[in-house]
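User: Before I run my own analysis I want an independent prediction to cross-check against. Here's the chain; please return only the structure tokens and, at the end, one sentence I can use as a sanity check.
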Amino acid sequence: MNERTEPRGFIFPDTFEVTAFGPSIPELEAIVLSELTRAGVRPDAGSVRHRKSSAGNYLAVTVSFWCEDRGHYENAYARLRAHPAVRWTL
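Assistant: Structure tokens:
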């Protein structure tokens, strides 16, 4: 039997990263940062990265954020997924 000695799941507080995908619009970065802030986590604006799809129709915005607990983490993803400009998250 293989026993795990390290803890399972996420450990809070810690820094996490999310990637939000949406249409290639200039406002997407601001939307992602705003929704993370409203979720009660602290996004690191200096960590933001962008990547356009091969056809240029979609944009991926990746950002790191500091999160105190699982509730805030789940709320951050829920807020992003609920925004009409965000098609999906990783």
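Sanity check: The mean pLDDT is 94.
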